[in-house]
C-alpha cells in the first residue's frame, strides 16, 4: 500500500516573525488610538467643566458688581425735595460711588419735614399717596411742609419679569434730572392709576406719556433716559442704601418693607387710608417741634 508523500511546509521562520511583528504593530496602533481618544475625552470634559465654572462665576460677579454711574441731578440725597410752590430743590448729580448728601430740615421748626420712601408697585404705598398727596399739596405750596420723595425699587421681581419697580423708579429719576418741576405730578400719576402687584406694570411708552402729561417739556431727553435705563444702576444702589440703613434724620435703622413715611424724623404707623389720621400725626409732630425749639422764657433778674 503506497504512502502519501508529505507536502512541504511553505512557512518559513522569517515569514512567521514578520507576521507577528505586523500583528503587534497593529495592536499597538489600535491601543494608541484608543488612548488618545480617552485622553481627549477626559481633557474635553475638564475643559467643559472649567468653562462651566467660569461661566457661573462670571454670572455671579456680574450680578454682584454693578456698573457705577453718576446719579440724577436734583437727587443728591437719594430723594427729590419738594418745597414752596411745588419747586424742587436743585442739586448737582452725585458722582459715581459718591455718598448721598443728606438734606437738612428747617432748623427753626416752622416747616414740617416729611420724607416718603416708596416703591411704585407697592399697593400700600399707593394707598398712602392717593390718600394724602392731595391734602399735602397746598401745604407744600405755601411752604408749611416740605416733602422729600425717595423712589425705591424693592418689588422689582414682582412684575411678571418686566422689572416694573426698577423701570418706574428710573423714569422718576429721569424726570427729576431733566424736568424736576414736573416731578410732583409725575410721582402722583404713578400712584393715581397704579398697576397691580404681580402684573407687568406700565410699559415704558406709558411712563413716557405720564411724564408728558405731568407737564414735562424736555420729553425727548426723558424718553431717551427711560429707553436706555440710564439711572437703573443708581436706583438699585440707592434702594440698597435704604434697605441697609441707617435712614438719615431719624432713629430708623433701615427700611423693612416697601413704604416708610417719616414726619420730622418720626415714622408714621397709622392708617394708610385715613387722611385725618395722617393729618393729626403731622400736627402732633409740628407741635412737638415747636415745643422743642421754643425760645425759653428768660428768668426775671432780681431787683438790686
Automatic annotation (TrEMBL):
Thioredoxin-like fold domain ranges (all copies) = 111-242
- Name listed for the protein in its UniProt record: Thioredoxin domain-containing protein
Where are the annotated segments for Disordered? 1-36
User: Does Transmembrane show up as a keyword for this record?
Assistant: yes
UniProt-listed Pfam families: Thioredoxin_4
* Ranges of Basic and acidic residues composition bias in the record: 9-25
InterPro entries, sorted: Thioredoxin-like_fold, Thioredoxin-like_sf
TM spans (from-to): 40-65
Q: Does the keyword section mention Transit peptide?
A: no
Kindly state which keywords UniProt assigns to this record, in alphabetical order.
Membrane, Transmembrane, Transmembrane helix
The UniProt regions of compositional bias labelled Basic residues, in chain numbering, are 26-36
Amino acid at each position: 500500500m503506497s504512502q502519501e508523500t508529505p507536502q512541504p511546509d511553505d512557512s518559513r521562520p522569517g515569514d512567521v516573525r514578520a507576521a507577528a511583528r505586523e500583528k503587534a504593530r497593529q495592536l499597538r496602533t489600535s491601543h494608541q488610538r484608543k488612548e488618545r481618544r480617552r485622553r481627549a475625552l477626559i481633557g474635553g470634559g475638564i475643559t467643559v467643566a472649567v468653562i462651566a465654572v467660569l461661566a457661573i462665576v462670571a454670572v455671579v460677579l456680574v450680578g454682584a458688581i454693578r456698573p457705577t454711574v453718576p446719579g440724577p441731578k436734583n437727587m443728591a440725597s437719594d430723594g427729590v425735595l419738594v418745597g414752596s410752590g411745588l419747586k424742587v430743590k436743585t442739586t448737582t448729580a452725585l458722582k459715581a460711588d459718591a455718598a448721598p448728601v443728606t438734606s437738612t430740615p428747617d432748623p427753626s421748626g416752622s416747616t414740617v419735614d416729611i420724607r416718603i420712601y416708596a416703591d411704585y408697585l407697592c399697593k400700600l404705598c399707593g394707598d398712602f399717596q392717593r390718600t394724602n398727596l392731595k391734602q399735602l399739596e397746598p401745604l407744600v405750596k405755601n411752604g408749611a411742609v416740605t416733602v422729600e420723595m425717595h423712589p425705591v425699587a424693592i418689588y422689582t421681581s414682582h412684575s411678571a419679569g418686566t422689572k416694573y419697580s426698577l423701570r418706574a423708579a428710573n423714569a422718576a429719576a429721569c424726570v427729576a434730572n431733566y424736568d424736576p418741576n414736573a416731578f410732583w405730578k409725575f410721582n402722583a400719576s404713578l400712584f393715581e392709576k397704579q398697576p397691580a402687584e404681580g402684573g407687568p406694570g406700565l410699559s415704558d411708552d406709558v411712563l413716557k406719556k405720564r411724564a408728558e402729561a405731568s407737564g414735562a417739556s424736555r420729553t425727548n431727553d426723558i424718553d431717551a433716559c427711560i429707553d436706555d435705563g440710564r439711572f437703573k444702576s443708581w436706583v438699585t444702589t440707592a434702594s440698597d442704601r435704604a434697605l441697609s440703613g441707617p435712614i438719615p434724620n431719624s432713629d430708623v435703622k433701615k427700611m423693612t418693607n416697601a413704604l416708610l413715611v417719616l414726619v420730622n424724623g418720626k415714622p408714621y404707623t397709622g392708617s394708610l387710608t385715613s387722611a385725618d389720621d395722617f393729618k393729626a400725626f403731622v400736627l402732633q409732630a409740628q407741635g412737638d417741634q415747636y415745643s422743642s425749639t421754643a425760645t425759653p422764657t428768660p428768668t426775671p433778674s432780681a431787683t438790686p
